[in-house]
Design a protein that fits this description.
mainly alpha; four-stranded antiparallel β-sheet; two-stranded parallel ribbon; 6 strands; 5% strand; disordered C terminus
Length: 466
């Protein structure tokens, strides 16, 4: 692996993403603002690059050579246009030198924690099943075939042997993450499994930057933001996804956190730049995984709820739930879901484009879900502590619009996951204790951000009292 080529493959998308966000939201002011921008810019830039790689005629191995110069020139133009400064958040509560030292220590420990993750990503092969059979398989197949060929299921490949296509078990899955891998490999000039896997430790850093910087942008004190970031980055399952690189769930979790925190900032400050960035990040969710379409729908619903008067939110939501339930169980209901298409709901079944027909009835997997949350060593004490924090700080969270937005989204997420694992064939993922954890991982950063906001809300109230 060439370290210089690897760094160049990271810096170009990062600079592109920084330029796009600076153009929309303004130039950042302050260390935490730059930190958030670095995290958001890295993922946004990679997604834009993945889109540019879809231009006809670009070969996988030539992607970096063909796109590097145009991306660099475009990025320079973006920064030339982004002249206005980024608005500053509300002032946060004062903190003692001890709190500042503890925040620095927590972030420093996370920096040291990256070293073994980096080493394991370098040395371990691509082991997880879906990582090899789906995400990395697509990237390697494109690279070896020297063309971005379409993917079909094995039956279609056998039925049409002369067709220029590649067989995979999941042809309908989004292809952004495989294109990230192709981009890094093309910068190397050959397929490099080590370079591709090292994208995941870099993503770990970007997730931490988004979490810390996003919470600071919402006015959270540095000690509380650092504690929340350390709690997130030290989760065992999250670290497994970094060390055993190849899965797409952590990419989706990071992008979802970016969209949720920008939405929370818009709800509180009503800045159009935050709304625009929240919408951009949300619309990109389906490009990572199919579940991204579900989270996109949840963010759009949350935004609609938060634009309503506070007194009407709960009645409107309850009325909408009753209406959907009545239509689904009587005449049937077709709901357009961005990224999926028309999802049809009827009594006992749901028809999802690209997925098929799901039979809806009760599955008794409560024991397995309980073990996932509370017994297995995947989440530390997260699911013990998180409800306790929400109960302890519920008054402060209730009075904070940003926290209320995240709370509405988490209610939506909890309802979806309950329906998914207890009423569909996805219950087998809970029975064998596999994908249930990976789907939970997608919402965990947003859940931790919600709990952390309780401390910002209480601090702000105390400041007003003084």
């Amino acid at each position: 692996m060439s370290p210089v080529a690897f760094v160049a493959a990271l810096l170009l998308p990062l600079a592109l993403g920084l330029g796009l966000i600076a153009l929309i939201g303004g130039r950042p002011v302050g260390a935490w603002a730059w930190l958030r921008l670095l995290g958001e810019g890295f993922l946004l830039g990679l997604l834009v690059v993945a889109g540019l790689m879809m231009v006809p005629g670009i070969r996988p191995a030539d992607s970096f050579a063909v796109l590097a110069l145009p991306i660099a020139a475009f990025t320079v133009g973006l920064f030339a246009l982004a002249r206005r400064p980024m608005p500053q958040p509300l002032p946060d509560a004062a903190q003692s030198p001890l709190e500042t030292a503890l925040a620095s220590m927590a972030l420093g420990l996370m920096g040291l924690h990256l070293l073994p993750l980096w080493q394991e990503a370098c040395q371990l092969p691509t082991l997880p099943w879906d990582a090899w059979s789906t995400w990395m398989y697509k990237a390697r197949a494109w690279f070896e075939q020297e063309a971005f060929l379409p993917f079909v299921d094995p039956a279609a490949a056998v039925a049409q042997p002369g067709r220029e296509a590649l067989a995979t078990l999941a042809p309908h899955y989004p292809n952004a993450v495989p294109r990230f891998a192709v981009w890094v490999a093309s910068a190397q000039g050959e397929w490099s499994g080590m370079a591709v896997r090292l994208l995941w430790p870099v993503l770990w850093l970007a997730l931490g930057a988004c979490c810390y910087g996003g919470l600071r942008a919402l006015g959270l004190a540095s000690a509380a933001a650092a504690a929340a970031t350390a709690a997130l980055l030290s989760l065992p399952l999250l670290n497994h996804h970094v060390a055993l690189a190849g899965y797409a769930d952590l990419w989706l979790a990071t992008l979802l956190l970016m969209a949720a925190l920008r939405l929370a900032a818009f709800v509180r400050e009503r800045r159009r730049a935050d709304a625009a960035l929240a919408l951009v990040f949300a619309l990109l969710l389906p490009t990572i995984k199919l579940e991204g379409a579900v989270w996109l729908l949840g963010l759009l619903a949350t935004a609609a709820i938060m634009l309503m008067p506070r007194a009407t939110r709960t009645p409107v939501v309850l009325a909408a739930i009753v209406l959907v339930a009545v239509l689904a169980t009587t005449t049937g209901l077709a709901v357009p879901v961005p990224g999926l298409g028309m999802v049809a709901l009827a009594w006992g079944e749901a028809i999802i484009p690209g997925v098929g027909t799901l039979e809806l009835h009760w599955r008794p997997v409560g024991t397995e879900v309980f073990a996932t949350l509370f017994r297995l060593p995947n989440w530390h004490l997260l699911w013990y502590v998180w409800p306790a924090l929400l109960a302890w700080r519920w008054r402060a969270l209730r009075d904070d619009p940003a926290a209320a937005a995240l709370a509405w989204f988490m209610l939506y997420a909890a309802a979806f996951l309950f329906a998914l694992f207890f009423f569909t064939d996805a219950s087998r993922w809970a029975e064998n204790l596999t994908s249930v954890n990976r789907v939970l991982l997608q919402i965990v950063p947003t859940a931790i951000a919600l709990a952390a906001l309780g401390f910002r809300a209480s601090s702000a109230r105390d400041d007003r009292s003084r």
